[in-house]
Amino acid sequence: MTILNNTSDGLHPELIVLFRAVAHLGKVEAEELIRICFPGSVSEASASAIARLRGALSRWTELGLFKENEGHICLNDRYVKEKKESLDDFTNKLPSFCRNLALEERNALPLWGESTAVAADFVRGIAWLLAQNIYGFPTTWTGAESIENEQIVGGRKIFQNDTRWTNLRFWARYLGFASGDGGSFINDPTSAIRDELPLIFGTQKELPAKDFLSALSIRLPVLDYGVYRKDVEGSLSMTTWRKPTEGHLSMSLSLALRRLDLSATIKLAGKADTGSSFRLTGRNYRTWVGFESVIWDGGVK
């Protein structure tokens, strides 16, 4: 099972179309939903597109976005459009819905083995990418495969083939773990972290750095200190993978926090030379700023 197999599971364009149709209709018969999302006659050229729609519907029903009852499809009860919320605004929440589903334990574990969970391939892949030197990481499958072969120990595999590598990059961008495209693609969890800030802070405006990072690792366990990240890092050779220096964050998390700080979304406060501080890691493993606490204004500018 996998969400990275283009042929059987589709990509986020198919998912968006299905989601919007179901959100608008409320409840719809499964085959009618496919006809709505792909109107017209079925030709040889369109058959694969229809297969991707069916695959996406099946996979995201399994993950818990949709639910099926007596052949009818509706959204899971946890996803409810507010009365005055537009369909476009509701659709803008879809990446967050999907990200949280993919990271749920029931969908992510086990990460390894012959009978992995439905989202294990995505979770495994994104945790590995976010642990890398993001400024020197290749953007091609052959380059990534070479690094994987050097780093992974114990006969495990992150990717099966170039198709899953390509599709991981699509999903990584859509789910907020990457930015850019082609040669500018970079492992960058800024968007995912931004989405989680309200749940991390709640009614508080400032958190100690340790508490902030602990909460972040629970919400997004593919980041530093998260359980999925630790699992993947445990399969990496310490001779070919460079672990962040004590008290330093990974390059990917450092980039995201730096971007959020520079955009005034958060403020990284405090000094870098205390026992309770953490330091950001930049290009060439250069130390950026350090911080003792994180301040958030609730998104109100």
Overview of the molecule:
The chain is mostly helical and 301 residues long. Among the domains are: 87 residues, Arc Repressor Mutant, subunit A (Orthogonal Bundle), CATH 1.10.10; 81 residues, no CATH class. It has 14 helices and ten strands. The protein has a three-stranded antiparallel sheet. It has a three-stranded antiparallel sheet with strand order 6-10-7. Helix 8 packs across helix 10 and helix 11 packs across helix 12. It is globular. InterPro entries: DpdG-like.
Entry summary:
The chain has 301 residues and is mainly α. Helices cover 47% and strands 11% of the residues. Among the domains are: 6-92, Arc Repressor Mutant, subunit A (Orthogonal Bundle), CATH 1.10.10; 194-221 and 244-296, no CATH class.
Outline the low-pLDDT stretches. Answer: none
- The helix/strand series, from N terminus to C terminus, equals HHEHHEEHHHHHHEEHEHHHEEEE
* Structural shape: globular
* Number of H- or I-type helical stretches: 14
CATH topology description of one domain: Arc Repressor Mutant, subunit A
Main sheet? Answer: 3 strands, antiparallel
Strand proportion: 5-15%
Going by CATH, the architecture of one domain would be Orthogonal Bundle
Helix-strand blueprint:
Blueprint: H1 6-9, H2 12-25, E1 28-29, H3 30-37, H4 44-63, E2 66-69, E3 72-75, H5 87-91, H6 94-103, H7 105-108, H8 120-130, H9 141-151, H10 162-174, E4 178-179, E5 186-187, H11 190-201, E6 206-208, H12 209-219, H13 227-233, H14 251-262, E7 266-269, E8 278-281, E9 287-291, E10 293-296
Antiparallel strand pairs: 1-3, 2-3, 4-5, 6-10, 7-10, 8-9
Helix pairs in contact: 2-3, 2-4, 8-10, 8-13, 11-12, 11-14
